[in-house]
Design brief:
Layout: H1 8-29, H2 37-43, H3 53-60, H4 64-76, E1 80-85, E2 88-96, H5 98-122, H6 124-141
Antiparallel strand pairs: 1-2
């Protein structure tokens, strides 16, 4: 890497941050103005059948107490609910509510529009190459797959 080149991790972070900021601005404009980035980072890790709080904390890289606080806020806002875990009567799962599913679907629509802009800028071949490269890198960097 030459002196004038930015490290690739910082480059990826800048692109991620840009998308994240645009998604949250669009969410607020659409009436989902009661969700924070921290709450969204926890909520985005909820698996379709539900997730345990400890899993959410680990994946969001926050303490269990912080995850619990954020889930409490999401519950009060109507985005998630806690339900009994069918595999362990002592445990609870966090699941998205209908409102949470609507928010997620809208956020995904905004993300897709941003990706379309990136495709227009990069070209289809480069965007496909970027997707393929990121998928391969995820195999090395994402312990949750």
């Amino acid at each position: 890497m030459s002196e004038d080149e930015m490290n690739v991790g910082l480059s990826m972070f800048i692109a991620h941050r840009s998308m994240e900021q645009r998604i949250y601005a669009a969410l607020a404009e659409a009436g989902y103005d009661d969700i924070t980035v921290a709450q969204g980072r926890v909520a985005s890790r909820i698996a379709p059948p539900g997730s345990r709080l400890t899993e959410l904390a680990e994946q969001a890289q926050v303490t269990k107490q912080t995850a619990g606080f954020l889930v409490d806020q999401l519950t009060r806002a109507g985005y998630v609910r806690r339900v009994p875990d069918p595999d362990d009567a002592r445990a609870r799962l966090v699941r998205l509510t209908d409102r949470g599913l609507e928010l997620a679907a809208y956020a995904n629509t905004v993300a897709a529009a941003i990706e379309n802009e990136w495709t227009d800028h990069l070209g289809k071949a480069r965007m496909r190459q970027l997707r393929d490269t990121m998928a391969r890198l995820r195999q090395l960097t994402d312990p949750y797959i």
